[in-house]
C-alpha cells in the first residue's frame, strides 16, 4: 500500500466518522517555545488548554513533523527519522477513551477491502499506563485482546506531553509483532524492534508545568474537558504494509537511495557503513526539501541551523560514498517527485526550494575544501604526537575562519578516531563573545544625549518579563544609531534596540547584563549589552549578524539560558557571601558595592583591616553551609518602610522607589533590596570559593569569589597543581608545606655557602693576577675576566685585593664578570695612577659604553655595567686603549 494511500484512508476513515479534516500546519511550530512542529497535536494545544474554543468537536490531520534530538542515530537504527508524518484524530471534550480505542481497533484490524489497514488482530499488542485499569479493561472489552498482550508501563513510556508546560495525559500504545526474525518474544516491554509501535492514543486530561523530564513534571489541574490526541506514525505503518524493513525503504524515501546508488556507483545493502550513509542521505534530503518548503532557510541559528546541519550531513555522506560533484541537483528532484503527490506545493515551489538548497551545498563545498585540509593537518599532527584529542583552539579556528560548525568537527575527527576538546572550544567561544561585549561596552557613552531615550520612556516603560521567562515574543519598538532613530539596520551594523517587552536583564544592582540573541524571520541579532539609559527604559545594544532588522518587526528575544543560570548563581552567591561576611565579622561589614557575572562575583564592604586567613576561611565555610542547607530564595514587593522594618538591607547611595523588591535567602538570614535575578534554592549556587581579598581605599575592602562550575574548575586546577608538586617532590600533599619550607631553607644555606666559596676562590687568584700586570703607557694594568660571580661586590673585593698587592707605583686594576646575567666591570686605581690622571670613574664609563650601559663612581673605585656580556673582552680593550692614551 502506497504511503499516499495510507494517508488517504486515514483521513477518509475519520471524516466518515464526523471528524473535520484539517490540513497540516507548517513545520515551523506555532508554539514559540519549540523550533518545529513535533506532533500532530501541536496546532490544537490552545483548544485542549481551553484557551480557545475549538471550531469543531472532532478533527483529523496528517501533520508534517520534525524531531531532531536523535539526529546522530539516523541511519544507524531503522526507526529514527528527522522528518516524518503523523496521522492524528482528535476529540475536544467529545469522545474519550472508549471511542478512541474503538476507532483505532477498527482501522488497524478492519479489512483492507473496507478501507482499513488489515493488520492481523493476533499480532496486535498494546501498552497502557500502569494505573490505567480503565484503558486495559476497554482493550479487553472492545478488542478482545487477551490479558497477556496488554502490558503496563510507567510514566517514562506511557504518559505524553510535549516537554513544555501544556496539556498531558496517560497514553496507550499499539504495537505490531513483526515476528521471530526481528527479536525475542515478550512484547514491547522486551523488544521494541520486533514489536513496533505504530500508534499512540493519548488521553489528554491534565495541565502541567515545571517539566523536567518525560516522567518529571507538575500537574497543575484538570483540563477544561477531557480530550483525545492520537498519533500514528505514517512511515512506520508504511513499512509494515509495504513489507520492507525500515522507513528508509518506503516508496516516499527509497527513490533517493536509488538515485544515490546511481551517482555513487555503490550498492545499498553491500556494506554496513555505506548503508548508514545511504539512509542518512535519504532521510536528510527529504527533511531539507520539507523544511525549505516551509520557508526555513539555512543559517547559524535555531531552525536555520538545524536545516543547515541536515543538508551538510547529507552532502558529507555523499562525499563519503565517493561523490565529489554537487549531489543535491540529482537527489532533491527525486525527493520532490516522491513527496509531490501528498504536497503539491513542493512541485510548484521547487524553483525557490532548489535554489536555496543548491546555493547552500555550493557554499558548504567551498567550506569543506578549505577546512578539511586544515582539519586533516591538525588530525595528523595530533596523531603523530600520540594525542587522542584535538585541541579546542583548532576546533575554534575551524569554526571562526572556515565556518566549520563544531558538530562537523566532532564528526570528522571521530571518523579518524579522535575526540575534540569541546570544553576548550566552548571556553574560546565564550571569550570571543565576551570580547565583543567588552568592546561594545567600551564604546558606550557615545549617546550622552538622552533626549530620544527620554521621549521613548515618556511613551512607556519596557516591561521586564525575565523574572519568569527567558524567551519572549515581542516587537521592535525603536531602533537607534548614535542616539538617533533609524528605520532599519543591516547585517554587520551595531545599533540600539528597544523592544515592547524584554526578558533581557539590564545591567544594574551589580549584576552584569544578560547575553543572548534576538531572532526573527531570517534575522539574528547578537545582544552585546543591555542598559537602562533612563529609568524604566531597557535598551539592547546589538550586532546585526544576519538579515535586516526593521522598526515594528516581530521578533523573539531569547536570553542565553546558560548565561542566565550563571548570572543567577553569581547574584545569589553575592547575597550569600554578604550574609556570611556579616555573620562572621558583624553587622558593620556592610556592602558598599558589588559586581557579578556568570561564574564570578566581587563585593566591596566597609571594614578597615585585612581579613585574616582564618576569617576568610570561616566566611567561605558559612557561605557553603548556606548553600548546602538548600535555603529557599523568595522575593516580594513591599513598601520601603515595610522593607526596612523587615530588616532588609538597602545600599547606601541608592535611591529606591516607593515599592521595592526584597529578596530573601533562608528567611531573615539574608534580606536585601534587589532587582536582580536569583536562583530558587541556595543549593543551585553550587559552590563558592574566595579567590582574593584586597583594599579598595580607606575603610573599604573587597572580596572576590568564583561560584558554580567556575569555582569547581578553579579548585580542580589547584588540585592538579598540588598533584604535580607532590609528584615532583615525591611527598604526600599534606607534607608539602613542610617539605617546600625545608627545601627553601636548604637552598638559602647552599647559596650562602656557594657565595663564600666563590669569593674565596676568586681571592685565591689575586696574587697571580697582580703578577700578570702589563705595562701600558706608564702604568701597570691588570685586566681580570672572572666569568660568573654572585654579585658585583665580588668583583669589587677582587679589584681592591689585587690593587693592594701592587705596590706604590701607578697601577690600574679592572675586574670584569657576569652577575645575574649582566656584564659588570669594576675598576680600581692607586694614588700614583690617579696623580697621572687616571680616574676609575672615567675608565669604568669607557668600558660600560662598549657593554651597552653606563658607569661611574669615585676616582679610586668605580663600576660600570651593561647588557651584552659577550662584549666583555671588547670592553677591556676599550679600557686598555683609554689607559694607553692618557
Ligand atoms: N502526541 C502524541 C505523540 O506525538 C500522540 O499524537 O505521540
Characterization of this structure:
It is built from 26 helices and 33 strands. The longest helix is centred in the middle third of the chain and has 35 residues, at about 350-385. The chain folds into five domains: about 5-250, Bira Bifunctional Protein, Domain 2 (BirA Bifunctional Protein, domain 2), CATH 3.30.930.10; about 255-365; about 450-560, Elongation Factor Tu (Ef-tu), domain 3, CATH 2.40.30.130; about 565-715, Threonyl-trna Synthetase, Chain A, domain 2 (Threonyl-tRNA Synthetase, Chain A, domain 2), CATH 3.30.980; about 770-885, Diaminopimelate Epimerase, Chain A, domain 1 (Roll), CATH 3.10.310.40. The protein is about 40% helix and about 25% strand. The strands form seven sheets. Strands 1, 2, 3, 4, 5, 6, 7, 8 and 9 form a nine-stranded mixed beta sheet that branches. It has a six-stranded antiparallel beta barrel with strand order 12-15-18-17-16-20. The protein starts with a helix and ends with a helix. It is elongated and about 135 Å long. The protein is an alpha+beta fold. Helix 3 crosses helix 4 (about 135-145), helix 10 packs across helix 12 (about 350-385) and helix 17 (about 560-585) crosses helix 18. The chain binds serine.
Amino acid at each position: 500500500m502506497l504511503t499516499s494511500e495510507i494517508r488517504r484512508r486515514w483521513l477518509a476513515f475519520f471524516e466518515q466518522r464526523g471528524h473535520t479534516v484539517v490540513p497540516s500546519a507548517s513545520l515551523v511550530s506555532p508554539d514559540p517555545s519549540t523550533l518545529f512542529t513535533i506532533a500532530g497535536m501541536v496546532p490544537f494545544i490552545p483548544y485542549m488548554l481551553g484557551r480557545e474554543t475549538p471550531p469543531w468537536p472532532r478533527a483529523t490531520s496528517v501533520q508534517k513533523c520534525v524531531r531532531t534530538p536523535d539526529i546522530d542515530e539516523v541511519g544507524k537504527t531503522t526507526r529514527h527519522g528527522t522528518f516524518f508524518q503523523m496521522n492524528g484524530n482528535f476529540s475536544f471534550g467529545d469522545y474519550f477513551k472508549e471511542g478512541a480505542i474503538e476507532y483505532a481497533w477498527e482501522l488497524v484490524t478492519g479489512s483492507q477491502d473496507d478501507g482499513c489497514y488489515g493488520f492481523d488482530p493476533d499480532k496486535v499488542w498494546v501498552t497502557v499506563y500502569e494505573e490505567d485499569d480503565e484503558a486495559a479493561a476497554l482493550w479487553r472489552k472492545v478488542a478482545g485482546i487477551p490479558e497477556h498482550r496488554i502490558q503496563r508501563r510507567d510514566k517514562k513510556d506511557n504518559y505524553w506531553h510535549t516537554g513544555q508546560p501544556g496539556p498531558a495525559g496517560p497514553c496507550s500504545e499499539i504495537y505490531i509483532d513483526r515476528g521471530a526474525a526481528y527479536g525475542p518474544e515478550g512484547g514491547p516491554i522486551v523488544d521494541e524492534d520486533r514489536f513496533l509501535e505504530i500508534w499512540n492514543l493519548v488521553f489528554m486530561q491534565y495541565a502541567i508545568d515545571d517539566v523536567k523530564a518525560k516522567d518529571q513534571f507538575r500537574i497543575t489541574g484538570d483540563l477544561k474537558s477531557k480530550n483525545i490526541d492520537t498519533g500514528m506514525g505514517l512511515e512506520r505503518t508504511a513499512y509494515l504494509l509495504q513489507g520492507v524493513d525500515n522507513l528508509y525503504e518506503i516508496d516516499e524515501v527509497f527513490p533517493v537511495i536509488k538515485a544515490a546508488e546511481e551517482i555513487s556507483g555503490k550498492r545499498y545493502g553491500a556494506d554496513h557503513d555505506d548503508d548508514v550513509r545511504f539512509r542518512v542521505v535519504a532521510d536528510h534530503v527529504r527533511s531539507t526539501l520539507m523544511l525549505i518548503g516551509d520557508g526555513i532557510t539555512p543559517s547559524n541559528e535555531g531552525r536555520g541551523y538545524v536545516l543547515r546541519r541536515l543538508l551538510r550531513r547529507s552532502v558529507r555522506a555523499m562525499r563519503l560514498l565517493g561523490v565529489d560533484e554537487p549531489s543535491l541537483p540529482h537527489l532533491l528532484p527525486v525527493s520532490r517527485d516522491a513527496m509531490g503527490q501528498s504536497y503539491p506545493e513542493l512541485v510548484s515551489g521547487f524553483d525557490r526550494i532548489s535554489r536555496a538548497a543548491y546555493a547552500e551545498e555550493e557554499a558548504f563545498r567551498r567550506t569543506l575544501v578549505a577546512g578539511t585540509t586544515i582539519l586533516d593537518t591538525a588530525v595528523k599532527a595530533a596523531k603523530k604526537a600520540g594525542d587522542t584529542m584535538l585541541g579546542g583552539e583548532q576546533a575554534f579556528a575551524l569554526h571562526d575562519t572556515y565556518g566549520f560548525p563544531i558538530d562537523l568537527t566532532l564528526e570528522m575527527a571521530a571518523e579518524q578516531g579522535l575526540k575534540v576538546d569541546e570544553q576548550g572550544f566552548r571556553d574560546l567561544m565564550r571569550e570571543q563573545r565576551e570580547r565583543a561585549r567588552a568592546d561594545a561596552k567600551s564604546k558606550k557613552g557615545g549617546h550622552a544625549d538622552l533626549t530620544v531615550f527620554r521621549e521613548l520612556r515618556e511613551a512607556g516603560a519596557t516591561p521586564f518579563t525575565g523574572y519568569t521567562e527567558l524567551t519572549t515574543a515581542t516587537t521592535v519598538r525603536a531602533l537607534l544609531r548614535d542616539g538617533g532613530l533609524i528605520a532599519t539596520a543591516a547585517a554587520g551594523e551595531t545599533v540600539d534596540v528597544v523592544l515592547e517587552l524584554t526578558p533581557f536583564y539590564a545591567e544594574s544592582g551589580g549584576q552584569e547584563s544578560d547575553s543572548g540573541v534576538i531572532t526573527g524571520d531570517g534575522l539574528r541579532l547578537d545582544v552585546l549589552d543591555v542598559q537602562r539609559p533612563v529609568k524604566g527604559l531597557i535598551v539592547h545594544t546589538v550586532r546585526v549578524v544576519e538579515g535586516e532588522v526593521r522598526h515594528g518587526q516581530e521578533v523573539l528575544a531569547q536570553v542565553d539560558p546558560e548565561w542566565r543560570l550563571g548570572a543567577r548563581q553569581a547574584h545569589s552567591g553575592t547575597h550569600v557571601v554578604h550574609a556570611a561576611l556579616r555573620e562572621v565579622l558583624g553587622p558593620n561589614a556592610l556592602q558598599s558595592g558589588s559586581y557579578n557575572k556568570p561564574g564570578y562575583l566581587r563585593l566591596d564592604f566597609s571594614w578597615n583591616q585585612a581579613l585574616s586567613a582564618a576569617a576568610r576561611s570561616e566566611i567561605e565555610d558559612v557561605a557553603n553551609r548556606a548553600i548546602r542547607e538548600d535555603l529557599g530564595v523568595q522575593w516580594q514587593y513591599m513598601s520601603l518602610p515595610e522593607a526596612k522594618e523587615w530588616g532588609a538591607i538597602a545600599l547606601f547611595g541608592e535611591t529606591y522607589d516607593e515599592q521595592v523588591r526584597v529578596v530573601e535567602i533562608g528567611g531573615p538570614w539574608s534580606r536585601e533590596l534587589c532587582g536582580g535575578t536569583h536562583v530558587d534554592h541556595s543549593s543551585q549556587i553550587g559552590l563558592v570559593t574566595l579567590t582574593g581579598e584586597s583594599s579598595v581605599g580607606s575603610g573599604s575592602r573587597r572580596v572576590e569569589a568564583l561560584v558554580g562550575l567556575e569555582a569547581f574548575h578553579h579548585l580542580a586546577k589547584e588540585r592538579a597543581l598540588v598533584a604535580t608538586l607532590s609528584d615532583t617532590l615525591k611527598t604526600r600533599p599534606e607534607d608539602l608545606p613542610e617539605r617546600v619550607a625545608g627545601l627553601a631553607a636548604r637552598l638559602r644555606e647552599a647559596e650562602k655557602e656557594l657565595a663564600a666559596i666563590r669569593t674565596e676562590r676568586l681571592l685565591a687568584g689575586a696574587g697571580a693576577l697582580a703578577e700578570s700586570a702589563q705595562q701600558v703607557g706608564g702604568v701597570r694594568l691588570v685586566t681580570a675576566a672572572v666569568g660568573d660571580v654572585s654579585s658585583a661586590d665580588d668583583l669589587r673585593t677582587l679589584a681592591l685585593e689585587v690593587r693592594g698587592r701592587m705596590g706604590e707605583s701607578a697601577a690600574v686594576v679592572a675586574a670584569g664578570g657576569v652577575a645575574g646575567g649582566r656584564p659588570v666591570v669594576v675598576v680600581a686605581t692607586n694614588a700614583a695612577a690617579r696623580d697621572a690622571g687616571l680616574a676609575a670613574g672615567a675608565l669604568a664609563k669607557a668600558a660600560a659604553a662598549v657593554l651597552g650601559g653606563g658607569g661611574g663612581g669615585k676616582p679610586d673605585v668605580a663600576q660600570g655595567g651593561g647588557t651584552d656580556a659577550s662584549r666583555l673582552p671588547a670592553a677591556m680593550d676599550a679600557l686598555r686603549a683609554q689607559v694607553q692614551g692618557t
